[in-house]
């Protein structure tokens, strides 16, 4: 027993001795990654985490970091659990010379919990295409950046696409649209926007919940068989998506009448269901799968050097999303460096960078993301930057883009954002910033 | 020798009935309390090594304290009264949502009049959350008068699933937020704003200390003896005049109250914003394991169990990285499962009665040391 104790004590001492120098790398920007490579959501968590990591590696290998400041990163496994995510956040937020640059938890639940913590710690939260939809309002949510699109954008674009397929917005009248959703804040977010649309366009909207993790959906799909909705929207994540497609096939619901959100539109969602997925549609968070200009550099500096963490998920939908996530984050840091100088920056400085980030068409092209992204610009008021999305369809082998860009109807969504964020401000006793006075 | 109480004469009834009759225990407890109440805040103020940054307080000490409290609560029911419960997650959720509702104002429009309670101060909200939980605990404790053991576990499991469902479905509890996730109100304790981690820690510590001492006191008194009599043999207990109705339901009420307070603290202080998933069946199992590993029927065991189940995986998770071993996070998190599982098995083989029994054996050994026989 004594021997074990001594060994443990020695190990503990060893831990502290090694841990100390790792903290003090002077000229490095520390970027944390909350990932989930295990658990029911791992099939979707892994490609995203790989993309995030590979783009950082690319910047380090090709440019020596961001304007010469190398990126140091560390992953922490959350397993998609909120309490574990909070622990990871606490673990990583203080690392590096200036603390964590920004967090992207890739989980709506963790985003909700961190939204309460980041104002105190002064670290921006980059939630690309997920999280609180009302956090678009930067006056109330100064630290949240729901870049590229919110669930409400997605809901609105999905309805617009259905209207397009039906031959006009007027044809929505009297139609039945059901939402099969992951029963969590993530799945519930679009309901407000869809209900608003239902009222406006006169279709019948029905929300059908699926409990976490979503492997049991028999009764939901039997209800759909009975009800025969004209379209089914799918708001699933992880193993829930492929289960939904399989169940739809089992009850004979046509897959081409199903539209998934952009979190239900990647390869791990359709491949497990095999041929049954053929015809299934999903929204695109602007980008899709496949290789673009930036992948040439990734090939050259990361993959061919054996530094990529990706395996067969390379250039898949979620991998590309991870790459874009890192690009937006690092471009925000670059923007902030213009003001604060080329050195590791604090979260507060990076927040300024996000708020003044302007990804013009020329800049997107320069970065190698042409064809993946539309121009976007954040302001003090608008923390979303863009409101457009496309639709893609699975042909059995790959995703094919089947629509042009739809722009979400802001006359419907903006009042929702305003209402919900005002409610949040009252509840948390926040005085919204006056954006006309911000520089 | 180290732990011998020889020479500690009890000269009054008060001394005979003290919570901690042995002087060494009293000294250790006072030392611990002084360390927790004064030592840690001072170390935090000067940023002494283990407390440098906020990590240890925010990510380990606060959840440890809160889950210990939940384990103390469950230990009263399962460890002392022998009623197996798988509903701790639900009772935590009731505490959390109850506190949330009282914190944001309760409004129930009825036929004749409207119940309208303005938002209450956080301190009362947390206690009222516990009270709500106690009521529901009594309700779900009623089956325990007829069924026992595993059957009762199934009945409490029903509570777990029912309340998971309630808090997801009934929008009134979440004040009709579009996402179903709710945000805790400001932590204003009579003008003391608990914003800094150390302040939150102290708030938790006060709650935990008060309730743990309360529990320790309860279990050695009349009511605790009734619980233990019921646990050991309910028919015999009934024959010597203990009313099972009163004993069992009081155990359910007090246990649920403490678990509910822990739930409110977990939601308000640790998470800040939460969804029903934070209190799902996994939470119930986690707390039950804490109680089993720590030791059924021991308040100290609840703390040891909480430390083992909560802190060990977090530490293991960081070992490879701290040692500089390049292992990917998924391997680490799988290893953590394997190692934690193996340690639990090992512990239960070596000492089926948990850490509390290990401690009492240790105490016995210390008492005889250095002349064991």
Tags for this entry?
heterodimer, A: 439 residues, alpha/beta, Rossmann fold, 45% helix, globular, disordered N terminus, B: 373 residues, mainly alpha, two-stranded antiparallel ribbon, 14 helices
Q: Your description of this structure?
A:
- The complex is a heterodimer of chains A (439) and B (373).
- Chain A has 439 residues and is an alpha/beta fold.
- Chain A has two domains: 24-150 and 294-388 and 422-437, Rossmann fold, CATH 3.40.50.2300; 151-286 and 390-418, 3-Layer(aba) Sandwich (Rossmann fold), CATH 3.40.50.2300.
- Chain A has helices spanning 2-23, 42-63, 82-92, 108-121, 151-166, 185-201, 218-227, 239-250, 267-270, 293-303, 317-340, 347-355, 361-367, 410-427; strands at residues 28-35, 70-77, 125-126, 144-145, 176-182, 204-210, 231-235, 258-260, 281-284, 358-359, 376-377, 388-394, 399-401, 406-407.
- In chain A, helix 2 packs across helix 10.
- Chain B folds into two domains: 1-52, no CATH class; 59-368, ABC transporter involved in vitamin B12 uptake, BtuC, CATH 1.10.3470.
- Chain B is built from 14 helices and six strands.
- In chain B, helix 2 (23-45) runs antiparallel to helix 7 and helix 3 (55-80) runs antiparallel to helix 10.
- The interface between A and B is large, with 51 and 41 residues.
């Amino acid at each position: 027993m004594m021997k074990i104790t001594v060994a443990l004590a020695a190990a503990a001492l060893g831990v502290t001795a090694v841990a100390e120098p790792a903290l003090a790398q002077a000229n490095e920007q520390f970027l944390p990654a909350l990932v989930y490579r295990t658990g029911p959501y791992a099939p979707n968590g892994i490609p995203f985490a790989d993309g995030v990591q590979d783009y950082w590696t690319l910047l380090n290998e090709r440019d020596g970091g961001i304007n010469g400041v190398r990126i140091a990163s560390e992953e922490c496994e959350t397993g998609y659990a909120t309490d574990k995510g909070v622990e990871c956040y606490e673990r990583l937020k203080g690392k590096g010379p200036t603390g964590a640059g920004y967090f992207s938890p890739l989980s709506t639940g963790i985003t909700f919990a961190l939204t309460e913590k980041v104002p105190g710690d002064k670290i921006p939260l980059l939630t690309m295409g997920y999280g609180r939809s009302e956090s678009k309002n930067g006056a109330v949510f100064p630290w949240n950046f729901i870049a590229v699109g919110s669930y409400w954008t997605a809901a609105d674009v999905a309805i617009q696409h259905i209207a397009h397929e039906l031959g006009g917005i007027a044809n929505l009248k009297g139609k039945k649209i059901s939402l099969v959703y992951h029963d969590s804040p993530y799945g519930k977010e679009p309901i407000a926007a869809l209900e608003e649309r239902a009222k406006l366009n006169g279709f019948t909207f029905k929300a059908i919940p699926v409990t976490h993790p979503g492997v049991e959906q028999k009764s939901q799909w039997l209800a759909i068989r009975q009800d025969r909705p004209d379209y089914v929207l799918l708001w699933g994540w992880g193993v829930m998506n492929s289960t939904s497609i399989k169940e739809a096939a089992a009850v004979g619901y046509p897959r081409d009448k199903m539209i998934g959100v952009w979190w239900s539109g990647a390869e791990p969602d359709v491949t497990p269901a095999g041929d049954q997925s053929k015809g299934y549609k999903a929204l695109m968070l602007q980008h899709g799968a496949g290789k673009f200009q930036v992948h040439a550099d990734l090939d050259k500096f990361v993959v061919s050097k054996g530094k990529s963490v990706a395996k067969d998920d390379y250039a898949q939908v979620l991998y590309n999303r991870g790459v874009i996530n890192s690009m937006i984050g690092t471009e925000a840091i670059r923007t902030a460096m213009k003001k604060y100088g080329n050195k590791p920056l604090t979260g507060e400085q990076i927040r300024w960078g996000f708020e003044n980030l302007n990804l013009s068409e020329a800049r997107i092209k320069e970065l190698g993301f042409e064809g993946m992204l539309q121009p976007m610009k954040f302001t003090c008021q608008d923390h979303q930057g863009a409101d457009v999305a496309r639709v893609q369809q699975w042909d059995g082998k790959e995703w094919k883009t089947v629509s042009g860009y739809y722009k979400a109807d802001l006359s419907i969504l903006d009042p929702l954002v305003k209402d919900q964020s005002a409610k949040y401000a009252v509840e948390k006793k926040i005085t919204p910033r006056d954006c006309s006075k911000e520089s | 020798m180290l732990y011998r109480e020889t020479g500690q004469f009890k000269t009054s009834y008060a001394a005979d009935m003290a919570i901690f009759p042995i002087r060494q225990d009293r000294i250790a407890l006072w030392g611990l309390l002084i360390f927790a109440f004064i030592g840690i805040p001072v170390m935090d103020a000067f940023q002494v090594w283990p407390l440098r940054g906020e990590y240890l307080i925010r990510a380990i000490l606060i959840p440890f304290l809160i889950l210990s409290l939940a384990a103390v609560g469950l230990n009263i029911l399962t460890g002392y009264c022998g009623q197996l419960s798988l509903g701790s997650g639900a009772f935590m959720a009731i505490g959390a949502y109850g506190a949330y509702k009282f914190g944001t104002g309760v409004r129930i429009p009825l036929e004749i009049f409207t119940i309208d309670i303005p938002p209450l101060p956080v301190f009362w909200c947390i206690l009222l959350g516990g009270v709500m939980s106690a009521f529901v605990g009594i309700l779900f404790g009623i089956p325990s008068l007829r069924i026992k053991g595993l059957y009762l576990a199934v009945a409490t499991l029903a509570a777990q699933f029912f309340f998971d469902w309630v808090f997801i479905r009934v929008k009134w509890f979440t004040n009709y937020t579009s996402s179903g996730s709710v945000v805790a109100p400001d932590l204003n304790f009579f003008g003391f704003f608990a914003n800094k981690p150390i302040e939150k820690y102290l708030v938790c510590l006060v709650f935990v200390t008060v309730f743990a001492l309360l529990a320790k006191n309860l279990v050695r008194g009349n009511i605790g003896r009734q619980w233990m009599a019921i646990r050991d043999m309910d028919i015999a207990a009934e024959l010597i005049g203990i009313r099972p109705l009163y004993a069992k339901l009081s155990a359910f009420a007090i246990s649920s109250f403490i678990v509910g307070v822990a739930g409110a603290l977990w939601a308000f202080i640790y998470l800040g914003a939460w969804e029903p998933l934070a209190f799902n069946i996994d939470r119930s199992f986690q707390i039950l394991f804490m109680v089993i590993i720590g030791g059924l029927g021991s308040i100290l065991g609840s703390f040891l169990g909480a430390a083992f189940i909560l802190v060990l995986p977090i530490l293991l998770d960081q070992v490879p990285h701290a040692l500089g071993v390049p292992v990917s996070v998924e391997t680490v998190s799988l290893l953590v499962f394997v190692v934690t599982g193996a340690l639990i098995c090992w512990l239960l083989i070596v000492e089926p009665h948990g850490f509390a029994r290990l401690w009492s054996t240790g105490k016995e050994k210390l008492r005889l040391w250095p002349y064991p026989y």
